[in-house]
Specification:
homodimer; alpha+beta; seven-stranded mixed beta sheet; three-stranded antiparallel beta sheet; 10 strands; elongated
């Protein structure tokens, strides 16, 4: 293992991981997750996770933004990787902070890029992929709180023009609550 | 120096920096910059940079989001660090991708939190801090393209309700252009 130690570098004001051998500072900053509520005739594309965390639970096509990508490019790549779906992006539905795990999530509204019947299939990180009408979304088996937030943001505007993006809900303004299994189905208020 | 090598980890699809000694994977993802167009009576708070890159040029109070912070908390911290200003956040003005340098920027519109005359002063990373009316913004000495984009986004709405955040301009949809010294003053169209 590398021999990192935690201390405040000169000129900084918070602790960083610093290599005891060479002095390399391993700056750790929040990561960006990009994802999309992909909609076809008011049905939403969701993926059942094949990987931990939350294997077997339903999520939106989303994942870490990579170096060299724009937000829109990252969101489109994730839709292809997780749902084999070619999408076009409408605009931003939500910008969320998940301070507990050091994430910022930017969630878009999008559509299938190709005309005709929506083309999608489970990618390697998905057990299953499906289009759900709002009332059949598997509310009891949602992977993460931000999936609720993004779905609610979509439901608030549906196909109307996008406005100010949704932020964290008042019930979790800093994004520090874990997902709790809900005894009754339905979106988080 | 640590002996990192660049290769594709098992199960991944792109090269990462991997420690040749211990196998530690150093995932490098884009970083989030948060900042604010802080406005007082239609004048905008700007900071002249005391540090590289772009020392001596004017920017908005902005910087890297830290682990454990929400976007709003990070933006408020940067306003305090760079301009000794206590601010309140209105909402999101712009969400920009700067693919060239692996950044996502979330820029808010904000106000001074305290009533009375705006209180601000140069923080340690600023040579100078000032409130500029739009027509006196130092257009020839702006530090970064995204400062132009954010200022233009503010000018497009001023004190009107915020709507869909601005994205990258059509002239640089991926955020890959460097700042070019402009021979004539004025905002980037």
């Amino acid at each position: 293992m590398p021999s990192f130690e935690r201390r405040i570098p000169e000129g900084d004001d918070r602790e960083r991981m610093i290599c005891a051998d060479c002095g390399h500072i391993d700056y750790q900053n929040p990561k960006v997750v990009v994802g999309t509520v992909v909609v076809s005739e008011n049905k939403i594309l969701m993926c059942r996770r094949a990987i931990e965390p939350r294997r077997g639970f339903w999520t939106l096509p989303a994942g870490y933004l990579e170096l060299g990508e724009t937000l829109e490019e990252g969101a489109a790549r994730e839709a292809m990787e997780e749902a084999t779906a070619r999408i076009s992006i409408d605009g931003i539905l939500g910008v969320f902070s998940v301070a507990r795990i050091g994430q910022v999530q930017v969630i878009f509204r999008g559509r299938f890029a190709d005309p005709g019947a929506p083309a999608f299939a489970a990618g390697i990180e998905s057990l299953d992929v499906a289009l759900f009408p709002w009332e059949h979304i598997p509310w009891d088996d949602i992977a993460f709180p931000t999936v609720h937030w993004a779905l609610n943001a979509w439901n608030a505007c549906r196909s109307a023009p996008l406005g100010l993006p949704a932020g964290n809900p008042a019930s979790d303004p800093r994004g520090v609550h874990r997902m709790v299994p809900s005894p009754s189905a339905g979106p988080v208020p």
